[in-house]
Design goal:
Strand order of the largest sheet: 2-3-1-4-11-5
Number of helices: 8
Largest sheet: 6 strands, mixed
Number of strands: 11
Main location: cytoplasm
Helix content: 25-40%
Structural class: alpha/beta
Shape: elongated
InterPro entries: ATP_PRibTrfase_cat, ATP_PRibTrfase_CS, ATP_PRibTrfase_HisG, ATP_PRibTrfase_HisG_short
Bound molecules: phosphoribosyl ATP, magnesium ion
Order of helices and strands: EHEEHEHEEHEHEEHEEHH
Radius of gyration: 19 Å
Strand content: 25-35%
EC number: 2.4.2.17
Keywords: Amino-acid biosynthesis, ATP-binding, Cytoplasm, Glycosyltransferase, Histidine biosynthesis, Nucleotide-binding, Transferase
Protein name: ATP phosphoribosyltransferase
Distance between the termini: 32 Å
Length: about 220
Amino acid sequence: MKLTIALSKGRIFEETLPLLAAAGIVPAEDPESSRKLIIGTNRDDVRLVIVRASDVPTYVQYGAADLGIAGRDVLIEHGGDGLYQMLDLNIARCKMMVAVPEGFDYDAAVKKGARLKVASKYPLIAREHFAKKGVHVDIIKLYGSMELAPLVGLSDAIVDLVSTGGTLKANRLTSVEHILDISSRLVVNQAALKLKYGAIQPVLDAFSSVVRQGE
Ligand code: PRT
Ligand code: MG
């Protein structure tokens, strides 16, 4: 039985290597230097497919991959159809925040009932956050570099991920609200969990033992 695991390059791939190693899986190549999108492993029955972070749930939903690792941010925006979230891997951790230019009085704007323009790659998360607060917003969907939007007048605020805070600082932005704690999750195709249970279960066990060690 063959297993296909969907991963994105960069931080998720790096932080997944120790989890894979615990399951006895070692990638044959480094996706950062290889241009291959399908990467073999030391195990004949396991291969990795390298996709955009936000595409991981889609590959798993349709069964093109049996397993995948994706951020909670990506999973909320995707909606989760066709997949089970099996495990919080506690990797690629960061926070979903509202940020504004330094000097912008966010609390005063909210109190006044101003209609805010908010740029984000995460329209669902942003919309729900402001709806809960009863703040009227126009969401402007972007695909990256949200930090630029308020600097050039595209928006008043952004909803984005923050880890060190260095990017906000470099662009003279400041976070004003915490929305969610984010980490990456192991997701499994619903049909594959039944049909390939014997192959998937040992991977789940190995991953969860690494996660427990880190707690
Ligand atoms: O890059 P691409 O458009 O292909 O996709 P992506 O940006 O979604 O992928 P990637 O690999 O950058 O992120 C994958 C996952 O890592 C995300 O879905 C998150 O769950 C998680 N993660 C953890 C982060 C960060 N930390 C993070 N800091 N994703 C993005 N960032 C960005 C953030 O958007 C901001 O631009 O890093 C910048 C802020 O970082 P600091 O350290 O300056 O605060
Ligand atoms: Mg990125």
